[in-house]
Amino acid sequence: MAIWPSVEASEYLGKLVRPRVDGLRWVERDQWHVTLGFIGEADPETIREALAGVSGAVAVANVGPVTRLIGKNTIVAPVAGVDELAAEIRSLIPSVGTLQGHYNFEGHITLARFKGLVPPGVIGIPVATRFEVNEVCLVSSDIRSGGVVYRTLDRFPLSRKIL
Hints:
By secondary structure, this protein is of the alpha+beta class. Helices cover 16% and strands 34% of the residues.
């Protein structure tokens, strides 16, 4: 389950300095998303049924303040403001399958991956954008030689407005 940044937020992130460094692979703009929960192998129709009643409020995703490292080789832009939505989605997932990894939600958009030492100039880049989240998406991932490709299988609109 994921949310996609708005066109404006993606354009902003696309303007960040992206140094060319051996061993560093920047994630393509059309693959940027915030993962709310990983679902392992499960029947998509069963997932659709479980998530049809998602009632989360429209949220505002705040991206920033600076790029940072998650794990040993992933550079991200942190995302705040979607924790409650992620918790709701994660509460629905056990009814359809097993939640995979990332048990402590850390909202982020993956910008790049690297091999070896942390490349210079990619950690601490200022980031400041936001976007409205009015739907969550069922997303499949396909691991290929050039990286993971994400594809939206279904969309679930959020029903409650921000107060």
